[in-house]
């Protein structure tokens, strides 16, 4: 695993060491077993694998929503024992709150995170300006006063990304955020994510089923095995940044996607 | 990029031509008049005596004739019903929040609530009379007991159906249970809550009238019971009409409140 050795653990923002996670008591399903993964700062990691491979469990372990029974998860130098507030999360379902305007939805994390919640009232203007700037970067300028149900699915997902980023998290965890979108909207949002990653000091972990998405966006693609999930391979993505959507039509790109596809098919058979 | 769904009601309705009758708007009035006309005709044709089925003309005559007691008893019923209903709103909201708060409380209290709800409330009136005597108090309590269950169930449902993703997003940010309840749970249960008020207010009338019929010296329930014992059937029907009027008025008020407070929930179902 060359990606890991080069970077070393000192640089790692997230390091998962030999983690077992079992749901529902000692006899329950073992979701991941012997999971080892290290994610460097500023890195864009995509996690792919057959369905039910514990990708969502990985998300919950890193964010501290689940504490592993065995092994350790270290985020930003601290072992995770409770939810870590340096992460932003976005899921396939945008889960915007329908009674709040888009702007208020984006501001929601600031009402929760310790660092901001006490400042929010006094510095409201500053935060609103920040949220509006963020909405502009994802192409939602002027939509802050709309309600989420007045936005299309793609726009809701853009707003969802803003909500995940408003508190300037060091780590952004994306769980198939583009799964429910049509192909064109999805490509647009890939570019949004790509530009966000390029312009901000943020580490991104993207869990996805879409191999083209993973190769287009990530610095490194991690392949997980079928349940109980563990990392079976890590592939650095060789393509230069900034990447253009055009690269998806290059033969090297398709070769990599095909190789990943083969690996996942193997991982499924072994299960 | 897809476009925004426009929800502009003004733009949607074209300008009305001058002499156009809005049949939809008029329909409730026309149908009500139609019902009374059919009823009147049925009585005339069948020749039933007014001690069995009084014609609506006779009932309205009774309303005018007995206006003073009808008005007094209507106010009394209105008072016991709304008081019981208000207690039910406060208690139902509180218990609903408590039940929705944790799975353990939900699991423990829910069967008790279902069992309690299964008891016919009319069977409780004698007990209430033993404790509080006849009159206003048992009527208020019966209205309360019968109407609070739907409120509890609806508030608890609203809380219990928070999307797990929303909860995860907030918990990962360090949100406490209280934060999640205040920011998501309670606002999200409001449409369920206001929806349940329409059911609850109707039930509250059932409760207060039952109690007044069995154990009270005033209220519409009592008035109808004594009118019945004197074979004053038009007055019984007059009482029914008054109950229907009060019921419709309160239902309309609750429906208006619901639209007013949780418009987002109705509009969101219209959005594509």
UniProtKB/TrEMBL annotation, chain B:
Gene3D superfamilies: MetI-like. It comes from the Bacteria. It is found in: Cell membrane. Residues 74-254 form the ABC transmembrane type-1 domain. Its main location: membrane. Keywords: Cell membrane, Membrane, Transmembrane, Transmembrane helix, Transport. The chain crosses the membrane at residues 29-48, 78-100, 112-134, 140-162, 191-211, 231-257. It is a multi-pass membrane protein. GO terms for cellular component: plasma membrane. GO terms for biological process: transmembrane transport. Belongs to the binding-protein-dependent transport system permease family. This is ABC transporter permease. It comes from Devosia pacifica. The lineage of its organism: Bacteria, Pseudomonadati, Pseudomonadota, Alphaproteobacteria, Hyphomicrobiales.
């Amino acid at each position: 695993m060359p990606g890991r050795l080069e970077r070393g653990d000192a640089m790692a923002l997230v390091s998962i060491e030999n983690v077992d996670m079992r749901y529902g008591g000692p006899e329950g399903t073992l979701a991941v077993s012997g999971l080892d993964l290290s994610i460097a700062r500023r890195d864009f990691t995509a996690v792919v694998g057959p369905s039910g491979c514990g990708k969502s469990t990985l998300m919950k372990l890193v964010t501290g929503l689940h504490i592993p029974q065995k092994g350790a998860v270290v985020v930003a130098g601290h072992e995770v024992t409770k939810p870590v507030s340096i992460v932003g999360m976005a899921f396939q379902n945008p889960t915007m709150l329908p009674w709040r305007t888009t702007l208020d939805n984006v501001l929601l994390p600031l009402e929760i995170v310790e660092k901001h919640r006490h400042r929010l009232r006094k510095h409201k203007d500053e935060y609103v300006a920040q949220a509006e700037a963020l909405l502009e970067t994802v192409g939602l300028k002027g939509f802050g006063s709309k309600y989420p149900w007045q936005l299309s699915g793609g726009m809701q997902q853009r707003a969802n990304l803003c909500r995940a980023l408003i508190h300037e998290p060091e780590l952004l965890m994306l769980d198939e955020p583009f799964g429910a979108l049509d192909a064109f909207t999805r490509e647009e949002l890939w570019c949004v994510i790509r530009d966000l990653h390029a312009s901000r000091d943020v580490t991104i972990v993207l869990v996805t089923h879409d191999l083209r998405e993973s190769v287009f966006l990530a610095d490194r693609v991690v392949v997980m095995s079928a349940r109980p999930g563990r990392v079976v391979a890590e592939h650095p993505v060789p393509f230069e940044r900034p990447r253009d959507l055009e690269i998806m039509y290059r033969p090297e790109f398709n070769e990599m996607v095909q190789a990943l596809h083969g690996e996942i098919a193997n991982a499924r058979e072994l299960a | 990029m897809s476009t925004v769904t426009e929800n502009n009601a003004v733009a949607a309705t074209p300008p009305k031509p001058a002499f156009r009758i809005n049949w939809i708007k008029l329909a409730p009035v026309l149908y009500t008049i139609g019902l009374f006309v059919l009823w009147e005709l049925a009585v005339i044709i069948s020749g039933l005596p007014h001690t069995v089925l009084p014609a609506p003309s006779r009932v309205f005559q009774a309303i005018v004739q007995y206006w003073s007691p009808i008005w007094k008893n209507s106010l009394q019923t209105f008072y016991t019903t709304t008081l019981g209903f208000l207690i039910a709103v406060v208690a139902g909201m509180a218990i609903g929040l408590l039940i929705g708060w944790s799975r353990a409380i939900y699991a423990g209290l829910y069967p008790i609530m279902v069992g309690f709800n299964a008891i016919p409330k009319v069977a409780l009136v004698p007990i209430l009379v033993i404790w509080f005597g006849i009159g206003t108090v048992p009527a208020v309590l019966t209205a309360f007991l019968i109407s609070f269950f739907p409120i509890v169930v609806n508030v608890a449902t609203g809380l219990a159906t928070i999307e797990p993703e929303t909860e995860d997003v907030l918990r990962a940010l360090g949100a406490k249970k209280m934060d999640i309840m205040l920011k998501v749970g309670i606002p999200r249960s409001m449409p369920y809550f206001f929806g349940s008020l329409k059911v609850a207010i109707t039930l509250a009338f059932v409760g207060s009238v039952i109690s007044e019929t069995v154990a009270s010296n005033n209220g519409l329930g009592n008035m109808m019971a004594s009118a019945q014992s004197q074979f004053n059937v038009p007055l019984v029907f007059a009482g029914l009409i008054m109950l229907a009027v009060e019921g419709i008025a309160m239902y309309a008020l609750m429906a208006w409140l619901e639209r007013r407070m949780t418009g987002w929930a109705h509009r969101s179902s219209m959005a594509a």
